[in-house]
Amino acid sequence: MNAKICSTQKELINSELLGFYSGIVKEILSLGHHLDSPLARKDIRLDFTDLYVFRGQVGTVFANSVCHSIFGPIPVPGYHPEGMYEFKIDSNGDSVEDVTYRFTFDARDGNGKQRFILRRITGADAADPHAPGDIVAQGTTEDHVTTASGLRAWAGKAGDPFWIEPDVLHAVGHAFQDGKVVDLSGWDESRAKNLFAGHTLHSIVLEVPDSELLTSTGGNRRVGVWSVASLATDAGGWWPHNRAAFPMIHPLFTQFNEDLGNRLNGGRPADDFATHGEIITKKIAAVVSAYGTAEDPRAYAEKFARRFLPNILPYEVGTPGSFGFAEWNGRSLTDNAPNVMFSMAANTPIRIGIGKESVVSKPRKIFPYMPLPT
Description:
With about 375 residues, the chain is an alpha+beta fold.
C-alpha cells in the first residue's frame, strides 16, 4: 500500500467533500465525535464517530467508525487508501501506547470492496507511525476474518448504534461556551428525536482473545484505549486527523470553538491535561457555578477534567463494557453516553429524552456486533 498521497488529488477530493458539507454545517457540527472539527471534516473517511471497547464472544472488542452518512453524498465512501486507522492500548498507566493494532486499506475495487492489512506493533515501536510491526490478518471489507489464534477482524458498512437529540445537544454546547445553565425552556421532551436514526457509517471491528491481548500487555488487565486516524503526507510522514476515546467531549466543549476541536484531535494523550486542562476546567466551572451545585465549582471542574484528560478510555480485560454513572469501563454499544457526560459535566441531571430504543437497527449479539445498515 502506497505510503504517499498525491497532494493535487487530495485537494480535489477535499474540495468536493467540503462542497457537499457546506449546506448542512450549521445543523450537524460536533455530533458525538461526528464531524467534530474542521480538520476532521476535510475527509470524513478519517473522521471517527465513536470508540467502543467491550467484552465480546471470545475476547475484547475494539470498534470505531468513520464516513457517516449524515455528511451527505460522499464521492468515495469507505476507508482512505492513504490513511491508517489505529487502536492504541496503554497497559501501564503512563498514557503512552504499548500496543497498536493498525489497519490500512487499498483503494476501492470495481465492486466497492477494499483489501485491508492488520498489523500489531508492540513495545516502544507502538508509538512509531513508521514501525512495520507484524502482519496478523488480511482481508476484504464485509468479510469476516479469523486467525489461527482466534483474533477476528471486520470492516464494512453498518448502522450507527449511537443516538443524540439535536436540540439538547446544541443547548448544551451553548451552555458550556457561554458559562450558563442549559436552556431547554422551549424544548418538549415528548418530541425528542434521534438525529442519527437510520443513518449508516463504515466500521472497523477487532476482537482479540484474552490470551493474545494479555500477552501483548504483559498480563495487565487494566488498560487504556484510544483511536487515531492519520493520513500519509507528501514528505513521507503521517498527519494525525482524528483522535477518539471518551464520548461527548467535543459536543460539550467545541461546538462553538472549532480551533479547540482541532487541537483536541491532535497531540498525544500524555500531554492532554497540560495542554487543555485549564480551558476545560474553566468551562465546566462556569456551568457548575451557574447551577450552584457545588460549593467550590473550580475544584469540582478540575476533578472532572482530570477524569477524562488524558483522553483515554479505561477498560478491564475480561469484564463487560460499561460507560455509566457508576463506572467508566470501556463502552458498550448501548450505553447512554450523552446523559452521562452532560449530567456529570454540569453536576446536575440533564436528560436527552431518548435512549437505545431510538436506534433503528439494533447492535448484534455476535461478531461483528455493529448494527446492520438500513
